[in-house]
Design a protein that fits this description.
heterodimer; A: two-stranded antiparallel sheet; 2 strands; 1% strand; elongated; ribosomal small subunit binding (chain A); Small ribosomal subunit protein mS39 (chain A); rRNA-binding (chain A); PTCD3 (chain A)
Chain lengths: 664, 362
Amino acid sequence: MIGRMGLGRVITRSLSSVEPALSQKLTIQPAIERSPTDLLNALSETVGPDTTAPHFAYIDDPITIPSTQSTKKTYFMAKEFGKRAARELATEWPTLFAFDRDQPQLPVFRPRHLADPLQVEPTENNLLKMISSREVKDSCILYERMRSENVDVSEKVQLELFRLVTYYNSSNVPFAEWEEFVGMRNFGEDSTSSWKSGAVADLLFETLPKTDETVSIMIAGLCKFSDHSSLERARELYKEHRAAKGKVYREAFNGLIGASSYSVGKKLVAEMISLRMTPDIFTFNALLSSAAKAGKFEDRVKAFTEIIGEMKEIGVEPALSSFHLIIKNIIDFKLLDNEKRESDEQKKTYNHQLTVAISWLNEIQNSLTGKTLKPITSTCNLFFVEAMGIHYRAANENLAENLVSIYESKANEVKMPAFTIESMFYNRQLQLAVEQSASLNRIYDLYTTMVPRLVGVNNYLSSLVFRKLAASSDRHWPLLRRVIIDGIAAGQMNGVIGEEMRKQLCNVQLHTLGTSEREQFTSLVQKLVAVWVEFSQFTEERMRRLQRKLSPSQISECALLLTRIGEQQKAYELLDLLLDETASSGDEATVYPRGHARPWAMAELFEDALRKRDTYAAATCLQIMSLTANRAKLEPLANRIFEKCNVNQEQVRIIQGFIRLRPQ
Amino acid sequence: SSAASGDGNDGKGAKDAIDEDLLNAIEGVANNIHPQNGSEKKSLKNTLINRLVANEKASFDAAAASASSEMLDDQALIGLLADVAGDAKVEKKLPPKSAQLRQEKRGLVLLRKEIFYQAVQSGFTTEEARVKSETIVNEAQIKLQEQRKALLNDVREKVEQEEVEETERSEKDQKLFTMALEFMEKIYKDDLISSAVRKPVKVDNDAIKLFNQKPLGIWKKGEKYEDFSLGFWKQWDERAARISNGSFGPTNSFEEQIEWTTKGKQWEYPIDNEFKMGDESNVSFIDHVFLERHLPSLGIPKSGPIAHFMHLVCVGLSKNPYMTAAKKREHLKWFADYFNTEKQKLVHKLHEQEQIAAQNAL
């Protein structure tokens, strides 16, 4: 094929060359063999994360792009279940897709039913197929059927089945090991199960001869799905087998060590030494797990350092999961709860332990920098979120940034699940950075980079940013606008965050904004007020549960904002609701009957009306303020109306009479 | 004497026929009209009692079939008189409005007539008697109105209370909805995040080190140990680790296509239109197209009608994209077997006959 020959290179020289024979030579380079994905891998390496877009899984119509963690889960699982439904449809009714002339045929688009263990022929081949495809429960059913029908099963096949059912505790593969459907893997919740007594694993163990391998497999399984009785049984099996001069495999030792205390673990390790057995990373992780059970901080510190020293001595590289076990268990558990650290002694102890933890993390991160990180055990990815938790507790922003750079480097192949654990990881980092940073520009850069792409919009983060904006003497309209827009998308408007939004918008100095920013402010206020008013008008029976009545404080704040953007008519339509008794009573009520208008908002509205010499508006404000103010406060306001506005004698008398009727 | 005896008899009968409440009412009315004159008071009282007894008898006779209704009317009238007199207390009732109005009107009319008559008998002028009766009847009417108003107020208060309860119920629904939203938020809340102000904790270089510590001393460096492992368990653990430490699938379009390629859902790059052809990928197009070179070895004559036919067969087969080259050669072999030596002679003979016939036709 010409296409597979690669590029031919023709070496030509000018005719004036003194070597004419060489100028006529044609050289064709040999074809470079490439795997099917080499080209795609090369292209993919050129693509980095797009900080202005959501995750690739959520690229869709913008209105459907999720903002919060719960909506991310809903969206992702909806897509995945749709895919599974289509798969099931193709499996169940293959004749619908029988007219197929595609060449070449691609079998992945023609899924087939898994073999039914009650229908399939009970042969060893079928059993082996089920075992190799990890259909644990189906294998158990078929095996029991073969035994009940007196079909012979060879010892070799029984051993294969024994391995499978012991490793998975006679249950199907847990969600955490689902390779194809990542949503179920990360969002699905497996129940932590203890060993199933009397299941196929126990049956096979009694049937098979008691060899080193079968006993070790059983001990490892009993320790993997451990409860009190299974651990007792594992220890008994170990003693019996050792008493019979049998040799136990490393995985059984790993299980027993992890399930024991540190002193017992060390004895088991000594047994491994007597058998001249090499440890692996799982052995040391098990030892770290047992060391973590020590009650005293000093004992744990000594044990952890000893174990890490031992790993270094014999050249076993610690995995991220090893560091995870250390970081997670170094601080006393009862000191982790902030509200339970009552005494000064406890606070001092906590501070000391936190200092040790942060110092160790500094050493760990220094050792990890620039190194290729590969997944060794299932819990390797948890190191990052646990370490970020320590950094958050210690408020150490430098180490947090260093940890993020380690996680995001090309050399790291350990990834946290993006919308669950990774989101928590970045949330902690973002919260820490926002708390510690005094620069609104930096907060803006961090926020726009991470929210809602990595960190879902949540009340606490929004409140924190609003507090930062309120506390700062600087103004940052882009940050305020972005947080409010994210709050709108996340459904935060009707709640405490909605109040905060109004307060922050009222604090904006319009004269400091540019022309385009002012237009943004105007459209944002219009949108917000329109949404709040619409929510208040859900008075039909079927919409009643979605209704959010306008409170007087909300009305006054919205009216103030509308006035600032030049929408006086809408503002006073809202204010009239406060004076309309029918608006706050009956089935058609849109106003909350309790509470009162914000005094500072009404004061500003009043001044604005006087400035515009709008008698009606000023009188409306006066009337609303009279609901909470007494006569002594109202008289100066009325006098200012008389001074500023063009009122005739009749109007003067009406206003004065109105004030005289107010309580003293 | 006989007149006095008659009066006594009437009094006894009246007391038996009319209950005590009504008698008290009548006494109140008599006191109101004649506060000072005892004899006139007594005379008025007797006359009122007689009239009422006669009226009651007539009513009973006229509506014997609706005795209960009349009793109700009577009771209402008793209440009316009691209110006028102010001497007796009547329980609040909830009669229908129309029935209530009818009873009131009937009682008031009756009362007005009797009082007018007695006033005239007592020596008042006609005008004075009319004014007197009107005044008393008006007082009675005012009392009735007040009573009705009180009932109405009770009903209104109940309605308002129900509205308040409904409002509270609606607010509870809203609170439940808000609570559900907050609960949803809390599920994804990071319990570690707190609002307590924290001072930065710096790295302490004097703290105990994690690395550079004395080891356990169990395994010795340089010594040889045996790798005694359940191979499958370790492999399956590593497989679980690889899967668990992945994330949520591809992060860009190229990664998605890599995934599709490895799963067999997409043609492989570089694009090759012979993708997954199978054995045919080793067959050259020459073998598909240039099929006439096989004819001599198959024994097909080089000229004549058979050669012409086989030429057409080769052209057709060369254009067929659905057959393998081997299958095409099988077709040729079949035709070769069909046109064996015997059939060649037959075709040749038939061809000559056809040519002769054609010449004769000319």
